[in-house]
């Protein structure tokens, strides 16, 4: 006891003899970040102009490259065009977004209104408006803030205590200071400021397991005394992912017109958060997941077959163990090669399971499995996994507008089908009109002549049946006019 006390005392003495105000590494880093932020505030019109900037509305034209999300597993990636409108009222936590485009066998004509208790999800394709039970201003507005430099500077202004200076680097032959920003939601950002102009030119963040996202801000133009970049590029792991051209920017205009739900849309059931859940949809058949990602587990005589490869797989296996304690997961079936449908490969490899996929997807799957000894089995059109008293049949229903090869799982005894990305099912409420991917899926079911009464998917806990597919095909897009 005594000795400890003496030591502590000695340490205190040592500290006291050194100048307490010496700049430690963290202190230096915070101070330097402060200097960079102050210079940026001046470059973006000054503190007063930025304080006065409370509302921004912007029309954008986007070209997207479906990196890891194209019909083929490798480049060149599919290219799509998207029209976008975003508006934010920072003072009142109001955010509005409208998006229209097509890609991957889907049609997007939707939007969101975040306005306190009067918040909505809009679907112009279906012609519906759903109240949002738990609107989240920070999560919804984050993507717009991250591509709008003056809004990032405002974030730095408000959250300067979270910023650190990371160092100085050269970008395009010009020296830059790099500082960090931690927003309310999401991983930390690294912002690159040109040492001479003090303008934000680049930004980076790391999003495991997808990799590094790089932002480039180009062609600044003054709008109401504040520079806004008119062109923006996004790269994912060094590959182009998005190019945006700003068509129009308005500052400090009222958003009243945009927070109204258009008369052309019908109100439907409210959108609730998708909590983690486990459902036994038939004896020994479990649909487990949450947050719009689900895995199907089928209990065989002496093992388990898992279907679906999303990020939820490790948590889903943990949950499965509460229901099926002792049988190994022998097969992990990946529906297709898309970046959100292969992370589960790593969990399957860890379980010692054989990963079932297509030969064309081998390199994508091996990368995701991150295990040199991962066992792969390839499907050529169809494969039956026999497990004693029951079987799981796998069918390649590709090519579809969504993917060149895509597996569905069919349990013939139970009449259950599991699909991914072809039959979008909202948690509750109306089944929307079919998109091209859904039409291809329905045609494949007809062609294969599979008898089923239960349809579940990788992105919803909802259990539907053939009547839901018929409804989707019957319904006409609303063309409600975005
Ligand atoms: Zn997909």
Written description of the protein model:
This protein starts with a helix and ends in an 8-residue tail after the last helix. The protein contains ten helices and 27 strands. The longest helix has 19 residues, at 25-43. The strands form three sheets. Strands 7-8-9-10-11-12-13-1-2-3-4-5-6-14 form a 14-stranded mixed β-sheet. The protein has a seven-stranded mixed β-sheet with strand order 15-16-17-18-19-20-21, covered by helices on one side. A six-stranded mixed β-sheet has the order 22-23-24-25-26-27, covered by helices on one side. Helix 2 packs across helix 5. The protein is of the alpha+beta class. Bound molecules: zinc ion.
- Which range does the strand content fall in? 35-45%
Low-pLDDT segments, ≥5 res: 1-17
Rg from alpha-carbon coordinates: 26 Å
Mean pLDDT: 93
Count of extended strands: 27
Strand count, sense and barrel status of the largest sheet are: 14 strands, mixed
Helix content: 10-25%
Strand order, largest beta sheet: 7-8-9-10-11-12-13-1-2-3-4-5-6-14
Number of helices: 10
Put the structure in a nutshell:
By secondary structure, the chain is an alpha+beta fold.
Draw up the topology in text.
Blueprint lengths: L1 H16 L7 H19 L3 H6 L2 E11 L13 E11 L4 E10 L2 E9 L5 E4 L4 E4 L5 H10 L2 H10 L6 E7 L2 E8 L7 E6 L5 E8 L3 E13 L2 E11 L2 E13 L14 E2 L9 E6 L2 E6 L2 E7 L4 E4 L5 H11 L5 E5 L10 H7 L3 E4 L4 H8 L5 E4 L3 E5 L4 E6 L10 E5 L4 E4 L16 H13 L5 E4 L2 E5 L1 H9 L8
Parallel strand pairs: 6-14, 18-19, 19-20, 20-21, 25-26
Antiparallel strand pairs: 1-2, 1-13, 2-3, 3-4, 4-5, 5-6, 7-8, 8-9, 9-10, 10-11, 11-12, 12-13, 15-16, 16-17, 17-18, 22-23, 23-24, 24-25, 26-27
Helix pairs in contact: 2-5, 7-8
Bound molecules: zinc ion (ZN).
């Amino acid at each position: 006891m005594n000795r400890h006390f003496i030591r502590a005392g000695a340490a205190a003495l040592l500290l006291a003899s050194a100048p307490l105000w010496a700049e430690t590494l963290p202190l230096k880093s915070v101070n330097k970040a402060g200097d960079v932020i102050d210079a940026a505030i001046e470059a973006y019109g000054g503190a007063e102009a930025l304080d006065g900037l409370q509302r921004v509305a912007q029309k954008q034209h986007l070209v997207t490259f479906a990196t890891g999300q194209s019909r083929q597993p490798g480049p060149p990636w599919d290219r799509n065009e998207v029209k976008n409108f975003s508006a934010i009222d920072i003072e009142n936590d109001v955010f509005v977004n409208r998006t229209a485009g097509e890609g991957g066998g889907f049609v997007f004509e939707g939007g969101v209104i975040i306005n306190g208790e009067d918040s909505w999800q809009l679907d112009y394709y279906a012609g519906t408006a759903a109240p949002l039970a738990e609107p989240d201003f920070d999560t919804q507005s984050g993507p717009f803030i991250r591509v709008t430099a003056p809004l990032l500077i405002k974030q730095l202004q408000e959250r300067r205590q979270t910023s650190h200076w990371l160092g100085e680097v050269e970008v395009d032959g010009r020296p830059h200071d790099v500082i960090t920003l931690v927003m309310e939601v999401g991983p930390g950002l690294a912002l690159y400021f040109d040492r001479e102009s003090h303008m934000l030119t680049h930004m980076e963040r790391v999003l495991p397991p997808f990799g590094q996202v790089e932002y480039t801000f180009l062609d600044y133009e003054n709008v109401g005394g504040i520079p806004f970049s008119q062109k923006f590029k996004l790269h994912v792991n060094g590959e182009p992912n998005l190019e945006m051209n700003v068509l129009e920017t308005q500052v400090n205009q009222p958003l009243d017109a945009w927070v109204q739900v258009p008369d052309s849309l019908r109100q439907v059931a409210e959108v609730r958060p998708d909590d983690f859940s486990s459902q036994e949809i038939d004896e020994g058949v479990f649909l487990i997941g949450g947050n719009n990602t689900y895995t199907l587990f089928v209990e065989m005589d002496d093992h388990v077959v898992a279907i679906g490869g999303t990020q939820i797989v490790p948590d889903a296996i943990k949950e499965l163990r509460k229901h099926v304690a002792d049988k190994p997961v022998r097969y992990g079936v990946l529906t297709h090669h898309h970046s959100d449908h292969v992370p589960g490969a790593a969990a399957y490899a860890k379980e010692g399971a054989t990963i079932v996929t297509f030969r064309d997807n081998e390199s994508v799957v091996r990368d995701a499995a991150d295990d040199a000894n991962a066992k792969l089995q390839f499907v050529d059109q169809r494969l039956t996994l026999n497990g004693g008293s029951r079987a799981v049949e796998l069918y390649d229903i590709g090519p579809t507008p969504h993917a060149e090869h895509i597996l569905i799982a069919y349990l013939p005894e139970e009449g259950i089908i599991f699909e991914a990305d072809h039959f979008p099912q909202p948690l509750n409420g109306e089944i929307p009109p079919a998109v091209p991917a859904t039409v291809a899926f329905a045609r494949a079911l007809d062609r294969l002549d599979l008898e089923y009464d239960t349809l579940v998917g990788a992105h919803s806990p909802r259990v539907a049946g053939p009547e839901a597919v018929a409804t989707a095909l019957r319904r006409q897009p609303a063309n409600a006019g975005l």
